[in-house]
Amino acid sequence: MRGARLICIVALVGLSGCNVGNEFQDLQTYMDEVRARPKGTIEPLPEFQPYEAFTYGAAAMRSPFQPPVKIDLATQQRGSKDIRPDEKRVRQYLEGFNIEVFEMVGTLSNGEGMQALMRGAGGVHRVKVGDYLGRNHGRIAKINEASVDVVEIVPDGEGGWLERPRSLTLKERS
Predict the structure, then answer these.
(1) Rounded distance, CA 99 to CA 103, Å?
(2) Is 102 exposed, middle or buried (CB count within 10 Å of its CB: 0-12, 13-18, 19+)?
(3) Residue 162 host element (H or E)
(4) How many beta carbons lie within 10 A of that of residue 4, not counting itself?
(5) 55 three-state secondary structure
(6) Domain boundaries, the chain
């Protein structure tokens, strides 16, 4: 017990010899500068920039990740005023998606005829001849075991419309 008291006394004597006064001089200088500043000066708030809403208007245009189609103006087909999409009919669900997202994955056949299974737009969909597919008024014209033939009605750029055939082939082992 006496040894422990002796060690405490020696430690206190050793610590009392340390010079503590100059150790916090830089902190004291900073505090003096802060206290010397004039009271009541607050920096103004930064200017608030209101949010401007942006509406994306190029959703119906060609994807920038697909190569552009080169068209020779001399051989370009002219549209017809007789061909025109039926704007008054009720649009089907699969017309809200680009035709490029669909791929044929199979067929079904029953008494009503042949139907195709198309994968895209978040699932596998059953389509038949006469159904519409894609944003360009694409109507399914023919279904066989290996492909689905679609006829799209697209504008020709001069006020007329063109019928553009397209074939979606069966994708095997997907």
Answers:
(1) 9
(2) buried
(3) strand 161-169
(4) 8
(5) coil
(6) 93-169
Nearest-angstrom CA–CA distance, 111 and 109: 7
Q: Is pLDDT above 90 for 140?
A: yes
Q: Strands across the sheet with 132-133, in order?
A: 132-133, 138-143, 147-155, 161-169
Q: What is the CATH number of domain 93-169?
A: 2.30.30.830
Place of tokens 């003096």: 32
Task: Determine whether 115 is exposed, middle or buried from the number of CB atoms within 10 Å of its CB (0-12, 13-18, 19+).
Answer: buried
The pLDDT tens digits of the residues spanning 66-97 come to: 777 666 555 556 666 677 888 888 989 988 89
For the chain, give the percent of residues with pLDDT over 90: 25
Give the total residue count for the chain.
174
Rounded CA gap, 96 and 139, in Å?
Answer: 13
Q: Which of 145, 136, 139, 132 is nearest to 105 (CA)?
A: 145
d(CA 23, CA 4): 30
